[in-house]
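As described in the Methods, two query proteins were run sequentially through the folding procedure within a single session, without resetting any intermediate state between them. The first query and its resulting structure tokens are shown here.
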Amino acid sequence: MLRVLIGLVWLLLSVSAVQAQDLQSILQTHADEIANPSRNSVGVALDDLVSSGLPQVPAFLEQWSERNVWQDNETGSFFIAAEDGDTLILRDVDTGAETEAPAGGYTQIRPNGGVRRVVGTALVQFQLSDPDPDRRLSALESIARRGDAEQLEPLLASIEGETDPSIRARKEQLAVFLTARFGETPDTRIAAIETLSSDTSLEARAVLSQILATEAGVTKGEPDGNIAQIIDPATAPQSYYGELVDAGMAPPVVTPAAIRAALEQNVVEGRVAGFPVAQLGTDAARMQAYAALVEDGRAPAFVTQADIDAALADHVFYLAYTEDNAAVTAAARETLDAVETRVGWAQKLDLTLDGLSLASIYFLAAIGLAITFGQMGVINMAHGEFIMMGAYTGYVVQLVIPDYTVSLIVALPLAFAVTFGAGVALERLLIRHLYHRPLETLLATFGISIALQQIAKNIFGTQARPLTSPDWLGGALVISDVIQISYIRIAIFVLALIFLFILLFILKRTRLGLEVRAVTQNRGMAASMGINPDRINMMTFGLGSGIAGVAGVAIGLYAQVTSEMGAGYIVQSFMTVVVGGVGSIFGTLAGAGLIGFLQKGIEWLNPSNTLAAQTYMILFIILFIQFRPKGIVAPKGRAAAD
């Protein structure tokens, strides 16, 4: 009989335990904390919810945080609900069964921001091991935004079972961050801090900065705690004396407003401390009356500069670490200094890559001009419009061929052909009649550039047109948080190198290059040797224009394609050619490098004003030309002719 009773009791307890495992029962146990949550009281309810291990808890916590939980006014039961006018679509927190009911019989639970953060911390513990990778990533980003000591243990526990390599790496990184801030022992924290010496990410530096956070303090005698810095108040005596006043450690300085208020409060029968009110119209009179009040003990005494100096000398101003352990802050300071050194070198390398990228763009834009201006001496102000024509050619090709990779392969030679033909036509119809007349050539080509811009506006409109790069050129090569460069700029750099070698091959290894160099150095002698100077000029001008068209396709991949885009490169192109050395391919390369690195360097020194950076760059180039008028690489042939 005893065994039967024991069995019945065990059965009843088991049934009760099973019933207690439904979520609604746990919520009813903490109904007040759920219905009227506060940051201080909600922790007990969350502990029971988390420890229950019920699979429906994460969904409830998420809906609770998003204010989608409603309570039945009669029964007190909780539901997840969505509003549909005056009706609620209710979902049971355990079974998920849906019903509809009037909204008037239910109250929406509205946790404040503090409660939602606490709930979010509890929810993260479930999400770290969620089967859905997106939920695990969401939990990790939540930890990254608001790291907490309570998140460290569940984060460490979730690492071993993580199957996704990238998510596992992210978990390990965040575990180091949290250990550095909230590790159980100083040795554990120091070990984690030291591992951050090679991590130049913003997150790692933020973690170290949080450990090294300070707060200002002032005291008499030696300050207590983990002191970061003793401050000399002589750097701003008035400001630091104000801190003493705010802390109640020194009397306030008597201001004119305070003097006036004290005088007004002590007016008795038309007098203040024996002085008639009518005689207090000057500062000196008011000072005398106030001094009388001070002697009578009815007003605070004046604070002299000597008093301020004495008060400052009698107190110690300091910055104290919020972290109490000096060994931890010392390790964090040493690590942060090492990281900042690495970041400094990384920034220099990133600036170098930016300068190299800009130099390659300027070289690609100027190399065609180096041929027409350098080899022929023609000032072609329409060179930028040939760049624009190449960019629009690429845009038209993409309209016909939707595959961006194929369209790019087709657009490059087609842009060369179109602008080569346009350059030949311009040379035959206009330029050949203006040789040795630079002013007329400049004015004529300037007029041509305006006409070409207007034609482009009439055909394509004034709005920018997209020249989309292929997917394999999208994004950037990310070396670190500091060093990165877009794939498009890498492609432009490679294209610039290709054109450099092609031009060198043409000028040094082909008959056309030999004839071009001959005509450049001595036109009459070249003609007497059977070379047709007019044909060479036509081919040279066409070649330079064709290269400008190819440059337009490359530049259009990252810049806006508009009718005026070429005008933004004509000045830099001329500066590149002139600074590098007129008529020299290597000089153009050197000029592009000098201008590109110089512009990026000035922008780095003055990042808020790019117009000023360009102005400084032009002034530098003007001074440079004064000392080296023939450029970095002076052409030998032209120098001899001169």
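Immediately afterward, the second query was submitted; its sequence and tokens are:
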Amino acid sequence: MTRTTRGRLVRPAAALGLGAVAAYAVLAVAPTTATTAHAATSDHLTARAAGAGGPATRAALNPVADAWADSMNPTRNQGAGSYLKVDGVPVVVAYLRFDVRGADADSTGVLRFHVETGSSTGVEVRDVGDEPWGETTLTYHNAPPVGPVVGSSGPVEAGTWVSVDVSELVTGNGPVTFALTTGNDTGVRITSREGTEKPELIVPAPPSPSPYLVTKIGSSTYQAVSETTGHTYTGRLKTVVESAVTELDGRGGGTIRFGAGTFDLGTDYFKIVEVADVEFVGAGMDLTVIRNSSSASADTEPFNTKGAVRMTIRDLTVSAGGPTRSTSDALDFDDGVDVLVERVRVNAARGRGIVFDGKNQGWSSTGNTVRDCVVTGVASDGIELLAASRTTVTGCRISHVGGHGIQVNRSSSGADQPNKTSDRNVLTGNRIDQAGQDGVSVDGGEANQIMNNHITNSSDDTSGRDGIRITTPSGIPCQDNIVAGNIATDDQSARTQRYGLHIVASGCRATVVGPGNDFAGNLSGAIRDVGTGTLYQ
């Protein structure tokens, strides 16, 4: 592993302003003996190791000292209790010292600790210099300075184990101290060395547990078992999958496999934040079903993600039941980049089937792909690209949806990034039937390609809509979009699809209407063009 030079040391209060810079967080990395087990009080989560397979030299070291320093009680020592505490406001920092003398100088290490309370942002692990401190004498006034973040847990649930890769600090030269901090104004309690679930430093770090196989073992109990190490999570479907995902993310990515059958989240949903290179793989669209149903007045997407990078979801069905709610979708990718959704069926959604969303400040949804998917029976759009660019939707079958079949959409004027357009997307080879509104809708945007799609019988829920519709409000860019090789017709006895192609606004400039389009058989005509400078080829 490449090591980095330790940064300038600062006092604890100032250190909290640095922010987390390298997320290597994982939940419940496998203990080193088969007899070690940990249970989460909230949902009976357990973690076990197979016992065999790890190097004989691997050691799980407990701290030789731990304590916490509180800025509100700057002269008080907190070194004898059964828990440690970290907080952002007021500043509270926990310190843990391990004796790693004898470890290989090029070794790797994982710091594990048990969180007793949850946090929406989690815990940061920071470097600490060689300044001495004592477990029974540490206070905020005499606490050693803390340095840069070496790893971060990300969001954590109460009663779970967190592991952070700290390999760059494990040198084998003697004792090593870690500081635990958070920028959150809600404190986190962590079991101390005096408690039952003692912190551990595992040296060298355990091997990657990918892939995890998820199976149902009871009426509402599931397991995620590592096929390489035997490490196991047991509990609610949400908990075991999120735990396995977080662990894989911290180890550089990996695979979550679902066998054949129905995997029922109940009213839960997967909340997946800032994850890279993790794939969810089923046994096939017709064999594996991920299901939930909720009437909550909140987003309840089975796959509720933010900041996913190079995530893959394939070969399964997603069913998201419950009363209609416009923003509660089946697969939601906020700030998703280079995501692949392949051979996925969505057969129910309170809102949209699949959405890529780049509208909020700092979000960039780009480079994603949806292919060979099936979306049917959802309340709103089949697929929406919302302020999302350079995304390809190809080979999908979309039918009987309440909104648009596929919508390429700008953000609203009140969004964090107002009127951010979706540009350079490619929609090709899709079949769309009985969309409630337009078969394909483009609202603003530049250089989007709508090519070789087969669209029939749109506008069956909302009157006056079209096979392909291109529009924009005044002042919002809409130019150089391409429409070629499409069929957009209505073969119903009572037609509902108004035009095959409708360029609605004069602000849509230089639209290219290429060869191979067939817009015959629509209610009001083949093409209505109010655009500016449309190029017919």
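The chain has two helices and 50 strands. We note this only descriptively and draw no conclusion about the first query from it.
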